[in-house]
Amino acid sequence: xxxxxxxxxxxxxxxxxxxxxxxxxxxxxxxxxxxxxxxxxxxxxxxxxxxxxxxxxxxxxxxxxxxxxxxxxxxxxxxxxxxxxxxxxxxxxxxxxxxxxxxxxxxxxxxxxxxxxxxxxxxxxxxxxxxxxxxxxxxxxxxxxxxxxxxxxxxxxxxxxxxxxxxxxxxxxxxxxxxxxxxxxxxxxxxxxxxxxxxxxxxxxxxxxxxxxxxxxxxxxxxxxxxxxxxxxxxxxxxxxxxxxxxxxxxxxxxxxxxxxxxxxxxxxxxxxxxxxxxxxxxxxxxxxxxxxx
Length: 294
Hints:
The chain is α+β, with helices and mostly antiparallel strands. The chain is 53% helix and 13% strand. Strand 1 and strand 2 form a beta hairpin.
């Protein structure tokens, strides 16, 4: 449906809207914003430049892992999969002569809409939606803490707004609406396991049994695991992901070239490690845990 280039008509863009576009992401530009449930519904349009796969691929490598959905990914991977379940929360998309459009709620609008949905559907046993707002890009520790503090999602108020919506918020909503009680149970188990790992890293940091650089690497590894589990849209996959976490098999992710490139951005003076080297570092943190050596 979207294989051919779209001819978009020119339309004036207000200065404040242009600034919002630069603030919110990369592939999409802000067309307008309107008040909704005390917050805002933000109207985006896909940028014509990224209809060219070469430009889109180049940008994705540049911004990885804070990716955003293209038109195809957004419609077929997310919106269509949820079959309209996201509409009550302010999500919609359409196509016209000016291009492909998508609307999404900000944190306040989404929480307000979810609260109304919860009240309208008491049979689902839903709890209030808890979203943590972050300015800009969260640090590794902030990201980990956001997950283990009972938040359903983290939503940036800066350049990762679109990434968080596409890969975390929408998928969490889809999972939550499909099997609410199973979602709450799996989230609690995941929080407990991640909290245990985070607390171990804190103990190692205080005891100085590992170097500051090693501590930084451990937090970086754990935050990428949290990022991954927040993208999952099926309960069974969360359970499998947690089993891999317990055995250290989750480190296989770092064999991927994009993740190795991501490692180089964080540690420019380090050669990206392979999975075996990371497993040694992770296992060493388990062996040196001060709880084992009171």
